[in-house]
TrEMBL record:
Cross-referenced NCBIfam families: RDH, TAT_signal_seq
Keyword DNA-binding: no
GO molecular function: 4 iron, 4 sulfur cluster binding; metal ion binding
Record has Transcription as a keyword: no
Keywords, ordered alphabetically: 4Fe-4S, Cell membrane, Iron, Iron-sulfur, Membrane, Metal-binding, Signal
Lineage: Bacteria, Bacillati, Chloroflexota, Dehalococcoidia, Dehalococcoidales
Any Gene Ontology CC annotation: plasma membrane
Cofactors demanded by this protein: corrinoid
Region entry Disordered, spans: 126-159
Name the record gives this protein: Reductive dehalogenase
Length: 496
């Protein structure tokens, strides 16, 4: 039986490239990649990915990592959303003036009253009404009975069986992908020392802020982690597993950046937060284990894209504030969770996406604040910002460093925010179209064509929609929760 199980057959793919039947010349360029297609299909049955998604070695993502450059001391209170951090670059007076003017909210209200496209009254109301957001249940509610209470032994599945259960359960509750990695002495160094703790915009002149505002994160010599008023903890006595969780966001909303639609787009990553926190918390408690997450970057002690990349759910992007997946592209929300149920670690992926960024650079071209690196290659060195060291980045990855300070200053204080990089990313395409399956296969297997594909993506007109067409979103008939989740199950679940 052929394991070339995509809905695009090998012959269709070759034909799409105009290479079917070719033996030399152009086709020979592809031969190293096509030799081993069947070998690429190494993902487990419970986590089938498109055929062009290659598995790498455990712990070795397409982003180079130097663990010796990390020490677990990153202070997330200094990340680039805070008055305090911006003030290190532009001064407290200017920062506090910006905050006190309430400029963005006032401009958005004025635009709504003037019926500017993208700020209509219904669009404005939809944004204010958007549900979702972080949960406040690090250890979850105990709404189910434990095995002890049920009078049965704790569930004892193999790591692979347990991974299968977690994949199926999280998919049911709204994840498009999860990626699993083992917490070891290296990955402990990626954890933060302090949390942002839901205090966005609040950390100002007082430094350090009280731990009741920004909690400390600690590994403790216990079997079970906990949260109190000043800290959150994970158990150091148990083997823990890190789970990167990806949720889909609406591509069509992101294409309407910047506008109120962009605000709504950003909120779509949280539509599934409640079920994705409460469900696994209770499910694993019912099996006799523990699960920890707030489903929030500000309240959880790690960079969620890093968790997704290490567990094989995603690759890092040039715009290194986000990572992207082969299925959903740039329009994904990412979250992290931890558990003590034994799981099978998953290999980081290579879908050619991070490599594609080297020849693309579309997000950098369209970034209005010039925050996205235009370097040809990623670097270990973190660039300066306004001549000063960037306190909001931590070293140890070879990246295109996006300036979080200049980016946030732009989008936090202008009507409609920004989000152009999400909306315009070359991977923000309708993945179900055949041409995109072919293109993504080419990106993965024949990087030589990446420049050509970038130009094709531009000529297709993908990217943000013109301002005058913003309100056309209301005319679309989009799937439930605003995104096509069928693209996340490569075989739609039935191609066993
Ligand atoms: S959100 Fe806007 S300003 Fe920030 S990096 Fe993206 S394009 Fe640039
Ligand atoms: S627009 Fe291009 S360079 Fe930027 S993240 Fe997307 S693929 Fe990478």
């Amino acid at each position: 039986m052929s394991t070339f199980h995509s809905t695009v057959t090998r012959r269709e793919f070759m034909k799409g490239l105009g290479l079917a039947g070719a033996g030399v010349g152009a086709a020979s360029l592809t031969s190293p990649a096509f030799h081993d297609l069947d070998e690429l299909l190494s993902s487990p049955s419970y986590n089938k990915r498109p055929w062009w998604v290659k598995s790498r070695e455990i712990g070795n993502p397409t982003t180079d990592i130097d663990w010796s450059m990390m020490d677990g001391s990153f202070d997330q209170r200094l990340e680039a959303h805070h008055i305090h951090t911006h003030a290190l670059y532009i001064g407290f007076d200017e920062m506090e003036a910006l905050e006190s003017q309430n400029k963005r909210a006032n401009e958005e209200l004025a635009n709504m009253k003037a019926n500017v496209p993208g700020y209509s009254h219904p669009t404005y109301a939809l944004d204010k009404a958007s549900p979702g957001g972080p949960t406040k249940t690090w250890t979850g509610s105990k709404k189910v009975k434990s095995p002890e209470e049920l009078g049965v032994p704790r569930w004892q599945g193999s790591p692979e069986e347990n991974s299968k259960l977690l994949h199926a359960a999280t998919r049911l509750w709204g994840a498009s992908q999860i990626g699993i990695s083992t917490v070891d002495s290296n990955s402990k160094k990626m954890h933060f020392k302090y949390l942002k703790t839901g205090s966005e915009g609040l950390l100002g002149r007082e430094w350090p802020p009280p731990l009741t505002v920004s909690k400390e994160f600690k590994w403790v010599n216990e079997d079970v982690g906990y949260e109190n008023t000043t800290s959150i903890t994970l158990p150091g006595n148990k083997q823990m597993y890190l789970i990167g969780i990806v949720t889909p966001m609406s591509k069509e909303l992101w294409r309407r950046s910047p506008s109120i639609f962009k605000n709504i787009a950003n909120g779509t990553r949280g539509l599934r937060n409640g079920p994705l926190a409460q469900g696994p918390h209770a499910f694993l408690y019912g099996l006799g284990y523990h699960y920890y997450t707030h489903m929030s970057d500000g309240n959880d002690p790690i960079s969620s894209p890093a968790a997704c990349i290490m567990g094989g759910a995603a690759e890092m992007a040039r715009q290194d504030n986000f990572c992207f997946t082969p299925e959903d592209g740039s329009c994904v929300g990412t979250f992290a969770a931890w558990t003590d149920i034994p799981l099978a670690p998953e290999a980081p992926i290579d879908a050619g996406m991070f490599k594609f960024c080297a020849t693309c650079g579309k997000c950098a071209e369209f970034c209005p604040s010039n925050s996205i690196s235009r370097e040809k290659e990623p670097t270990w060195e973190i660039p300066l910002s306004r001549g000063k060291e960037r306190v909001y980045h931590f070293p140890g990855k070879k990246a295109y460093w996006c300036d979080g300070d200049t980016c946030h200053l732009y989008y936090a204080y202008n009507a409609g925010g920004c989000g152009i990089c999400y909306g315009t990313c070359s991977f923000n395409v309708d993945t179900s179209a055949m041409i995109h399956k072919l293109s993504k296969g080419m990106i993965s297997t024949v990087p030589l064509f990446n420049g050509f594909l970038f130009n094709i993506s531009k000529s297709f007109g993908y990217g943000v929609v013109p301002p005058e067409e913003m309100e056309s979103w209301w005319d679309l008939s989009l799937p439930s929760l605003g995104s096509d989740t069928s693209i996340e199950a490569w075989d739609i679940g039935y191609n066993k």
